[in-house]
Specification:
By secondary structure, the protein is an alpha+beta fold. 44% of the residues lie in helices and 14% in strands. Helix 20 runs antiparallel to helix 21, helix 20 packs across helix 22 and helix 39 runs antiparallel to helix 41. It starts with a helix and ends in an 8-residue tail after the last helix.
Length: 1187
């Protein structure tokens, strides 16, 4: 029935729609006087029940009677008893929308709530707010006393409300007090302003249809001194002065907790100095306070201190107060609906395929029965592709179930109809409490309802997470589904929302217009630099080798089909990777025919040149076009064809050593980590020289490199490296006549031609780019490093002037190269090139300025390069500080989830979303001699382990890591260094790393012939850098290990030496009980022996109060006289499960109760641990506070 109610709620608006929209089962022929009498009696009987027991107000009853009588007298149709019952329940819900159909425009709605701490009680108030807004759809949710500080990231999943974005103004001292924040609907045409120095205040503007609404949300602390209040009023007046415009009176709304009272706001409130001053100031600017009910309610007092000001009260449709959601929060919710029209994004449709129910055999049979040679005869390449697509999609439509669905915004899965009804009941009880004169009995009833609501939400979320937990534990759950669930805890999975775009100071809301704006913007980026450069008159000497054709075979095509990533998006043709994989070998022949004909005619199908573009937000304001980058999605068949070309061309380039040796990007076997090792080794080695040398580094920023590639230029360079014949003509056609369109919310822009660049999202594009910039280093004398378009040059400084001349000379050559090949750099001259002087010297000599593109190169103390911040001293402090701060904020999510999902999944989450960040470039920043850094890094894992297990801070790291099977991060970095060094030794990494290793001395003693000679090191920083430290640790390893050229075998052996075997929890299912069991396992719990050993001030001895024995874990389980009855129950059940346990000594039996036994199966161990947990909980020994 509740589901029926929800369906009706979405379809009818009882106040504003004709009651005829209700279903009618009776007809005119059945309208006898008897049926009228019976129906009327039933109606009033139902009304009586609802009035007496469900507290439907008499105004609702009269409305229903009016409608019922109206139908009887005038329409001669009857509403059935079921219809009437549903209608009453709808009225009881109190959340009937005015318009039952889809709406394009709606009125602005704003609410404010002083939550008195968002993070408290595991963010329960935010969950309650999310459930509340599932009923009452607000555009802005203004929150006071958020109690957030810099330790909480705005992107923290704990701080998200579905469908909303968060803006914050925390306490000025960055403490967990006060603070103001605003959750605003993602579709709002909104921008935030900085026009005041007032802290805990947010100011925003909404612009739509040439109308503007300025909204101020603030919090004023009640503990302000006179001087602080004077400052508040001064800044408040600055805000009012800036947002008021007498000549053009735009809508102004000011909302917040002012902690001020005035009798004109609420008649029984005493006037306070603050209230008088605030009222005087706001009145002088034509603002009216529209809330007159109490907003702060205690059992014996109430006041109106949460205020709502506006300069246009005449357009306020309704306003008022909703009851607080949380029992411990005495501030009520204030709200207003205002006649300020806004745009509501329409839903869009999407076709989905049920691949798991596909008739694969029928699909392949149909495709195999087609005579592709006959079908393709006398058709052009484009016609062949169109025909292939048509056949394939038609067959799939018949044999793969599919449907078109409407994408709508949905509530969170844990928000149930019961929760919604409880919220409505709470609101009704609050209204009754106010109308009856705020009686104490009504107050307690209201508080009980709030407690029930809190309990319902907690239990519903727990059940929801338990369902997910069950899926994570289910071996039938697919890998894709498993990772999808894990990511949902840390990553917001919803599709990226493009808010209204601010163009020429006006917001654009229409998705069709937005898609065209994006397309124009992205297409303009694919343009050539407008200079006078022309191609060289002559080609360089042609190589002795060449490539002119590609050989295709069925096996290679089939292999590529089977290796397609089914999670990749498909292009505009609608053919997905999943479809191609289902077809398998049945599409090899038609694809091979198309590919062969395409190569023969040197023509790339035009349909495969068209790209769908998805705008992805990069940083800063989301309403600015420039803050987005394009993601290009090309047809899958075209990319399959490109991969065949790529494989042959890349093999040709590598075999003939054509690619630049300094290029690490898009190279098989190379990586950014390899390049960073090379860079940092040279810098550390220079620091180690006597005297210490400096290194000058310049980092260049090529602007939109892929989009600026000159087609004639890349063709010129292809000829110069031996690409000729049909392959050359094919690539020439591949580059030309390409087009793109932007797709947003199902709306597509028009197609736009692309004038320059290599195709984004393609397979061949990156390789063609490498060929294009392959000669950028020709003639350069400095040490140049390339990673795709990231270009950096380094020079060891023996003489500052000579080094500057050398770098300036190379920068000038790069300028000339860029001009010749029409490449441009960052439009901001200060960012085209940046210089870092790497130095360990206390007093640096002055360095001459460097020049690039007629601008001085900006000298900076650090530079982020390939994901790592390289600071001038190369101590990585800045990089580590940012990383540690970022990861610390993610640990709270583990703490939140440990009550809902199994431990093994928590460990996977930690490894995937926290430890993965410490793993990145750890061989670069690792400093074994720096204990401060080691401890800071280790604290990340230690705090994560505490969050996973619920162990008490102070627990031994070794025991905690043993519990979870985690190696120390320092040991992990040691393992990763040696694993990478193994690859270098056995030539499985780039040549430039292998060449760094010192060559052995032939005169070395045969006793040490297997040792690798090390560098002579003067400084700790060089000693502990990658190569010297790795060589030292390598030489310590056993010869049988270092002589094993199998990397997997080498890694497994090392891992066994550092990674402990975890203590299993089997199927122990009670989260709280498992936390208590873990505390006993790791030796720090409420037990007095544990607290005494760890130096707790309230524990002066380890003796148990029961009989003066030491209160150890064994004593607790086997001897304590306080728990005799519980122990008898435990032992009876344990010995019934496994009689042999009676023969164990006390220590062994205690270990079985704590850990289970390796001799038992998983099922028996699960029962033992669950009985052990039941005993722990039953004793209630651990319910007291720890201190």
């Amino acid at each position: 029935m509740l589901h029926d109610i929800n369906a009706w709620r979405c379809q009818i608006g009882l106040y504003h729609a004709s009651f005829k929209c209700l279903s009618k089962t009776n007809t005119k022929e059945n309208n006898s006087s008897v049926s009228i009498i019976i129906d009327t009696i039933l109606m009033f009987f139902i009304l009586l029940i609802f009035t007496c027991f469900l507290e439907i107000s008499y105004s609702y009853i009269s409305l229903l009677v009016y409608f019922k009588v109206n139908f009887i007298i005038f329409d001669f149709f009857f509403i059935t008893v079921k219809d009437l019952y549903l209608a009453i329940l709808l009225l009881k819900c109190g959340d009937i929308e005015q318009n039952p159909g889809p709406r394009q425009e709606y009125n602005l709605s704003i609410m404010h709530w002083n939550v008195n701490s968002i993070p408290s009680h595991n963010f329960i108030k935010l969950s309650m707010l999310e459930a509340f807004t599932s009923i009452h759809k607000f555009d802005l949710i203004c929150v006071s006393e958020s109690f957030l500080d810099s330790s909480y990231s705005s992107n923290d999943p704990s701080l998200t409300l579905k469908g909303y974005k968060l803006a914050r103004s925390d306490h000025p001292l960055d403490i967990k007090r006060g603070g103001s924040c605003v959750f605003y609907r993602e579709s709002l045409p909104i921008k935030f302003l900085s026009i005041s120095n007032l802290s805990e205040c947010l100011i925003c503007e909404i612009l739509y249809n040439n109308k503007k609404c300025t909204i101020v949300s603030l919090y004023r602390s009640p503990s302000q001194s006179n001087d602080e209040f004077e400052f508040f009023m001064k800044e408040f007046e600055v805000i009012l002065e800036n947002i008021s415009n007498p000549g053009n009176p735009n809508l102004i709304i000011i909302v917040g907790d002012f902690n001020a009272r005035l009798s004109s706001w609420k008649t029984d409130d005493p006037d306070t100095h603050e209230g008088i001053e605030i009222d005087s100031l706001t009145s002088s600017y034509g603002l009216t306070q529209i809330i007159s009910s109490p907003t702060h309610i205690l059992p014996n007092s109430s006041s109106c201190i949460d205020l709502f000001f506006t300069n246009q009260p005449n357009i306020v449709i309704n306003s008022g107060v909703y009851s607080s959601l949380h029992p411990n929060c005495h501030h009520q919710i204030i709200y207003a609906n205002i006649n300020f029209k806004l745009f509501f994004p329409p839903p869009y449709q999407r076709q989905i395929w049920h691949y798991s129910r596909a008739n694969v055999e029928a699909i392949q049979l149909c495709l195999n029965n087609i005579d592709w040679d006959r079908e393709f005869l006398h058709r052009s390449i484009d016609e062949q592709v169109v025909l292939f697509n048509t056949y394939l999609l038609n067959i799939c439509q018949n044999y793969i179930p599919n449907e078109v669905i409407t994408i709508n915004d949905r509530d969170q899965p844990w928000i149930t109809p019961t929760i919604k009804l409880q919220i409505t009941k709470k609101n009704m009880l609050y209204t009754k409490y106010i109308q009856n004169g705020r009686k104490i009995a009504d107050f307690h009833t209201l508080e009980a309802t709030r407690n029930t609501l809190k309990y319902l939400i907690q239990e519903s979320k727990k059940k929801y997470y338990n369902r997910l937990s069950g899926k994570l534990s289910d071996p039938k759950t697919s890998s894709k589904a498993y990772w999808s669930i894990l990511k949902s805890f840390f990553i917001d999975k919803k599709l990226p929302v493009i808010p209204p775009l601010l163009v020429n100071n006006e917001f654009v809301t229409d998705f069709k217009v937005k898609s065209n704006l994006f397309n124009d913007h992205f297409a303009k980026q694919c343009s050539l630099l407008n200079n006078t450069s022309t191609l060289p008159n002559e080609y360089p000497p042609l190589p002795l080798y060449s490539i002119s054709d590609i050989q295709l075979n069925d096996d290679e095509i089939l292999k590529l089909i089977r290796n397609l990533d089914v999670n990749k998006s498909h292009g505009h043709d609608g053919i997905s990777s999943r479809i191609l994989r289902l077809c398998d070998s049945s599409i090899v022949k038609p694809l091979k025919l198309i590919f062969t004909n395409s190569l023969t005619n040197s023509t790339f199908p035009s349909s495969w040149k068209k790209a769908n573009i998805i705008p992805i937000h990069k940083k800063d304001e989301k309403n600015n076009l420039k803050n987005y980058r394009p993601i290009s999605v090309l047809p899958t068949c075209g990319k399959l064809f490109e991969k065949l070309i790529y494989n042959s061309l890349y093999h040709y380039l590598e075999h003939n050593k054509i690619l630049n040796l300094n290029q690490s990007g898009f190279r098989s076997g190379d990586s950014c980590i390899n390049q960073l090792i090379s860079i940092t080794h040279n810098i550390f080695k220079s620091f180690d020289a006597n005297p210490s040398l400096e290194v000058g580094g310049v980092f260049l920023d090529i602007s939109k490199a892929f989009d600026k590639v000159w087609h004639e230029g890349v063709l010129f360079k292809l000829r110069s490296i031996g690409v000729e014949g049909k392959l050359f003509d094919f690539i020439k056609d591949f580059l030309k006549n390409r087009s793109q369109r932007v797709v947003l919310n199902g709306q597509c822009s028009s197609w736009e031609n692309i004038a320059a660049g290599v195709p984004q999202g393609s397979i061949l594009g990156p390789l063609l780019f490498l060929i294009y910039i392959n000669d950028i280093t020709d003639g350069l004398e400095t040490d140049v490093k390339l990673f795709a378009d990231d270009t950096s040059i380094f020079s060891i400084v023996t003489d500052v002037n000579q080094s500057a001349r050398l770098i300036n000379s190379d920068l000038s050559k790069i300028e000339q190269w860029a001009f010749q090949w029409k490449m441009s750099f960052n439009p901001d001259p200060s960012k085209q090139a940046q210089e870092v002087i790497f130095s360990k010297k206390n007093t640096q000599p002055p360095h001459p300025d460097l020049m690039f593109n007629q601008a001085k190169v900006k000298r900076v103390p650090s530079q982020k390069h390939l994901g790592v911040i390289l600071d001038a001293k190369l101590n990585f402090n800045e990089h580590l500080k940012i990383m540690i701060n970022k990861l610390t904020k993610g640990i709270s999510m583990l703490r939140k989830l440990r009550y809902y999902i199994p431990r093994h999944s928590l460990i996977t989450i930690y490894k995937s979303f926290i430890r993965s960040h410490t793993d990145f470039a750890d061989v670069i920043y690792d400093q074994p001699h720096n204990n401060t850094i080691i401890n800071k890094l280790e604290s990340i894992q230690y705090n994560s382990a505490l969050a996973i297990t619920g162990a008490i801070r102070g627990t031994s790291r070794e025991k905690l890591y043993q519990e979870l099977g985690l190696e120390y991060l320092s040991s992990r970095r040691w393992f990763k260094r040696l694993s990478l060094f193994h690859k270098i030794i056995y030539s499985k990494s780039p040549y430039y790393l292998h060449n760094i290793i010192p060559k052995p001395n032939h005169l070395i003693n045969t006793r040490y012939q297997y040792l690798i000679p090390n560098f002579f090191c003067r400084t700790l920083s060089f000693t502990n850098s990658f190569f010297p430290y790795s060589i030292k640790e390598w030489n310590k390893l056993d010869r049988s290990l270092t002589s094993n050229n199998s990397l997997s075998s080498f890694r497994n052996t090392l891992l066994k030496s550092i990674r402990p075997t975890p203590n299993r929890v089997y199927g122990a299912c009670d989260p709280h009980g498992l936390i208590l069991l873990t505390r006993l396992r790791v030796g720090l719990s409420h037990l007095r022996e544990h607290k005494f050993k760890h130096g707790f001030n309230d524990t002066i001895n380890p003796l148990c109060p029961c009989n003066m024995e030491v209160e150890s874990t064994t004593h607790f389980y086997l001897h304590c006289q306080n728990f005799v009855t519980q122990r008898l129950d435990l032992m009876n059940e344990i010995f019934t499960l496994e009689p042999n346990l009676q023969n164990l000594d006390e220590k062994s039996l205690t270990n079985v109760l704590l850990f289970g036994s390796k001799e038992f199966g998983s099922e028996l161990n699960t029962k033992i641990l669950n009985l052990s947990i039941a005993f722990i909980l039953c004793t209630k020994r651990f319910e007291e506070p720890l201190f």
